[in-house]
Amino acid sequence: MALRSTANRAEQARAFGIETLQANAMDVRCPPEAVSLLYLNPPYDWESGESNNQRLEVVFLEHTYRWLKAGGVLVFVLPQLRLAKCARLLSEHFTDLRVQAHRASLPRIQAEVVLATRRKRDSRITDAVLLDGVRYLEALATKSELEPLGDTAQVHYEVPASESAVLTNMGIPLDELENVLMESAAYRQAARVLLPKLNDVKGRPLTPLHGGHVGLLCTAGMLNGVFGEGEDRHIAQWRSVKFTDHWEEEEEDGTKLLHDRERFSHELTLVFANGKTQVLTQEKKQSMGEGKERGLSHTLIFRHHGSAHLAVEFTLMPVQLHHHAARDFTDCEKAL
């Protein structure tokens, strides 16, 4: 049985025929010693609690290791440096510990796999043995060369038989709540205030619009929306941004005057259907190379609600790119 926190990951697991529960692992309850094999691959991140903020690798291990029956097998995937935080718990409750590098699939985070067997109830270890085990794992957390996890099994772990485990989600089913929220009376009442319906812009202007007119429409949100088709389909969001210009002037007597001038300009945020994002503004945040020092001047043709066609010339500079190589303004012009 699999436990996934997001709907898309849960659907992927179900597509392989795996019985999957979509829930936050911290909200799931399982009877102690109910499973014989625990494959644990937690988020490599910190908690977001108000206090006692711990690594999630430790939190997940503390929450789930009790589910594993005596003699059960643990497969624990985590970044190498985080092994030290888990060393005491692993040494105290597990035996037959084996740590191998898992660089092939996760090279950037230097991942490793911990293989171990849950100690039996009557198994007791001395403080000296426990301390030696903790020091051994802490040393592996900083070891430069670990034995890689290969395709051929080097050590065999016997997985004991177990009955079907019952996992219970004690948390709020957020996805189901989101689906029924739109139909609730409370949402319909609150939506009138929190999400007022924007007025549609239809028809053709009686006279040609100048750049200033279009700029006002953009920053007022009247030209926001979804545009394009296929790979070029994207969401466009305009807003007004305040900039402050600083310059220095020196008088004949050597007195230096510092000037500050505030002005407003436009900023366009694009979110494409394939996950790419781009923020365009007329401000150049850093040197873009020869030929781009003055920005990029292009004429944008907007088709709003299939009727109004507005043209305006802007000088915009790409200042922020995410998840893809830099694309110039011509690509955005084609998308629009």
Q: Round the Cα radius of gyration to an integer and report it.
A: 29 Å
Q: How many domain regions?
A: 2
Shape: elongated
This entry's quaternary arrangement is single chain
CATH topology of the largest domain: Rossmann fold
Distance between the termini: 46 Å
Q: Class by helix and strand content?
A: alpha+beta
Number of helices: 8
Overall pLDDT confidence: 79
- Order of helical and strand elements: EHEEEHEHEEHEHHHEEEEEEH
Classify the helix fraction into a percent range: 10-25%
For the record, the CATH architecture of the largest domain stands as 3-Layer(aba) Sandwich
Number of E strands: 14
Strand content: 25-35%
The profile of the biggest β sheet is: 6 strands, antiparallel
> Which spans of ≥5 residues are poorly predicted at pLDDT below 50?
287-336
Q: Which CATH top level class of the largest domain fits?
A: Alpha Beta
Query: How are the strands ordered across the major sheet?
Result: 9-10-11-12-14-13
Polypeptide structure, described:
The protein has eight helices and 14 strands. The protein is α+β, with helices and mostly antiparallel strands. The longest helix is centred in the middle third of the chain and has 14 residues, at 127-140. Strands 9-10-11-12-14-13 form a six-stranded antiparallel β-sheet. The protein folds into two domains: 2-172, Rossmann fold (3-Layer(aba) Sandwich); 211-335, no CATH class.
Provide a brief overview of the structure.
The protein has 336 residues and is α+β, with helices and mostly antiparallel strands. Helix content is 23%, strand content 33%. The strands form four sheets. A six-stranded antiparallel beta sheet has the order 9-10-11-12-14-13. A four-stranded mixed beta sheet has the order 4-5-7-6, covered by helices on one side.
